[in-house]
TrEMBL record, chains A, B, C:
A Pfam family that the UniProt record links to this protein: Gly_transporter
Keyword Transcription regulation in annotation: no
Location of this chain's protein in the cell: Cell membrane
Membrane topology type: Multi-pass membrane protein
Name by which UniProt lists this protein: Glycine transporter domain-containing protein
């Protein structure tokens, strides 16, 4: 079940990467690379942080084909994609939540402390998008806009909290998933956001 | 002793990260992440380069709370922070020097060659700031301005040189620390800098 | 033989890094660091991805001196370098091809699957340039322009294909090398490029 959601998620993330690459007028190769990095970069950074070798996708070459294929497919259908706007946002939200849970599971298996498990979940959830934005030379959107990264944090805390309380794993998954998805979709619908910190550069560090 | 300086240092670095995030109008989450990465990113890159697993901060979850707490605290006191300008620069300089020495020690313990030990010291000293600037989509300041990264290089060379000469470790620490701090503060006071390389793009690679 | 080409390659890459740093008016230290990262960053990212510790250059400190030396030397001769334009592009193309083959060899030795071997070759070939461009705060050129990254892909596929067919290793090296070099030089000469994906930002994700 989580596997299917994961496959949908990396496909959606690859497509979002391809669109970002298209906004930078990248070539076929650039589109493929950004699609791949957006989809699998979060898990890669997590594995490298935790010393979890071999890195996950190197054991599943089919993920490489899937994400690059999704990126190239996006080039073909880009002109129609705004009709799929809502679907796309839902898939992306599912990806965020699924990545977070999977990231927590990896760190739990390696017996890291709880705060590190939370960081691993968030890293898996948001670092693909951060790498995408760095490669496209723009400030990472997940640090700027709406409730996005915070959804990842909430999912990680809820998932670990319910686990601690001894809740059945399937029910836990369902609850964490639903709560995360609901919060993310509510954030999109009503433009929920965290307080923003605006600091005007002063004399002291310019 | 080095531990206390280290704790002060990561706090100061986290605050500098939070201010940079504020200049990009990031939200609470973005501020926390940039604070964390600025403070602990240098050591993380060093550990990943050297294969020093588990990465240091994953064994000290309190560092996560400390750096994120410092980042959020900075949001509250940002309007007063220019009054603390001098204190802040001194804390940052202490951080640079402490990080460098600690980075060298990690590589020495893993028995890397001297040039790698120096690189590990510099990486620990400056990569937090480089990651902060990459995440804020600006050219890394440490590669542009004043004697900053060079202070890290000098401290690493002095520390290893005195060690080679058999100088007592505490005296070595004190000497390296004082020299690095003095050079950094002198660089700020008199705007010391290295020669700059300005290359105007020619036809050949545009 | 491959070693000599490799040494020429990292020198050429270090010089291209130094020129990019010069365009950002970096100081001596910035130039050295960018030269080092451009030359050895691709192999470093590959080693960290594959868990191939210790990272290659940490076992060859002379590479540190060579790349930093090449960077500083570039500062001295920058005003004459446009006369060497053609030579420089050839050296850079040799570097791209040599890095790719070396990257494949490392992943083969670690017994990764073929698609991962190809990714390791490409990573080694192009990530030094990507890191250079990220540190200089610009969109990575290899994802935008001409046949460059694609040459790396072709070389990796040809090299592994001929290996699969049981072709003698020296002949394989010669063939992959010649084909890659020829394609890259043809791409420069006739401005060959892949199709570009241009996506204008729509309402849906702005």
């Amino acid at each position: 079940m989580l596997l299917y959601i994961y496959l949908i998620a990396i496909t959606a993330e690859a497509m979002s990467g391809a669109l970002a690459a298209g906004r930078r007028n990248m070539d076929l190769f650039g589109v493929s690379l950004i699609a791949f990095v957006t989809a699998l970069g979060g898990g890669t950074v997590r594995d490298m942080l935790l010393g979890n070798y071999p890195v996950s996708w190197t054991q599943h070459p089919s993920y490489i084909y899937l994400t690059i294929g999704a990126g190239l497919f996006t080039m073909l259908v880009a002109r129609f994609i705004h009709h799929l706007h809502t679907l796309f946002l839902i898939l992306d939200a599912m990806g965020l939540v699924a990545f977070t849970v999977i990231g927590c599971d990896v760190a739990l298996r390696l017996e890291y402390d709880t705060p590190v498990v939370v960081m691993a979940g968030i890293t898996t959830g948001i670092f693909g998008g951060i790498l995408r934005d760095i490669l496209c030379n723009r400030t990472p959107m997940v640090l700027l806009h709406e409730l996005y990264a915070s959804v990842s944090l909430l999912v990680a805390l809820l998932y670990l909290g319910l686990m601690e309380l001894g809740v059945d794993h399937d029910i836990n998954l369902l609850a964490s998933f639903s709560a995360g998805l609901a919060l993310r979709l509510a954030a999109i619908r009503w433009s929920l956001s965290l307080p923003v910190f605006s600091y005007a550069p002063g004399r002291w560090d310019d």
